[in-house]
Amino acid sequence: MKIALVVDHFQGKGGAERLEMTLAEKLSTDVFTGYVLNESFNLAHLKVKTVFRRMNSPFIRYFFQRQAFRKIAPELAKYDVVIYFGNSLDSAPLLPKTTKKILYCHTPPRHIYNDREYYLSKFPWYIRPFYQFYTWMYKRNYEKLVKHMDSIVSNSVNVQQRLKKYTGFDSVIVHPPCNVKRFLWKGQKDYYLSFSRLEEVKRVDLIARAFTKIPDKKLLIISGGPELKKIQQIAADSPNIQVKGWVSEEELLDLIGNCIATIYVSLDEDFGMGAVESLSAGKTIIASNEGGFKEIVGEGTGILLDETTPDKIAQAVQSLTPEKALAMKSTCIKQAEKFSEENFIIGMKEVIESL
Fold first, then answer.
1. Structure-derived torsion over alpha carbons of residues 105, 108, 111, 112, reported in degrees to the nearest 10
2. Which pLDDT tens digit goes with each residue over 211-220?
3. Which domains does the chain have, with CATH numbers?
4. pLDDT tens digits, 152-192
5. Which residue stretches, if any, does this entry annotate as coiled coil (predicted)?
6. How far apart are CA 252 and CA 246, in angstroms?
7. pTM for the full model?
8. Phi and psi, residue 221, nearest 5°
């Protein structure tokens, strides 16, 4: 059976990129993607074809991206199954019925559904009518294209419910995979860790502000993104906070394996693969009590915050001592096994075989 993956882009080392890479490896698929940035994983061992170059403007990119992904339809028609990730679905209506089409939904596009008003508020009043037209057109096209799917998979209960609420589409759940043999306990040093992308919705600034209030606790931030300078400014006068930016894969594994605990406070996180990776290394979690974290952080594996503020984060850090975190080690590892690569591949094979 010939399988192809169609991915918007590879532009970082996040959970979505890792999932797509894992599926391509395990099922020996070909990959069609918009572009691959140097900051992402090394994909040299995979069969990857890029179809357009990156453009900074999301509005301009949207139109060029649609055309680029339409043009690969003749190539995709040669495959038995095409699995789409993200929003680059434009080839779907052009494929024969014999080619089965699956959408793996990390989330329905936030900027046209649940976060639309938030993004709209970022524009000056005279730009908003154009943005409203853009999102209306995007929404209409997205839902029209999703109707061509033979099956839809959501990565979590949270995303399944969100997809149903905003589009009416039903889906099955296959949780993203974690290589539980790769993220390992290596010890316990004296720092807490954040490795979420530095984007506004990840709210890493709240974590940094929390640690300015508890100078006796160390925080290490190992990621990059548009909020990097903001985070650096918050941490500038706090020697207990170190902002390292992106690190190598080897260093990432070492830093996760040696921390006291990891912290995630993303706004309505779709799933939260970083949290699963932490659990796999026997590391307990402090997370906001919303989104996918509610599915990941089980009893005895961490602290869920009902209020996501610097003060509440600081209180949680102070209460989660190294001794308490160490006592949760075995429970964390057991919880992570629910999200193993083996279970993910079994789930995806079941979806493919059901078509």
1. 150
2. 999 999 999 9
3. 3-177+340-353 (3.40.50.2000), 191-339 (3.40.50.2000)
4. 999 999 999 999 999 999 999 999 999 888 999 999 999 99
5. none
6. 9
7. 0.85
8. -115, 115
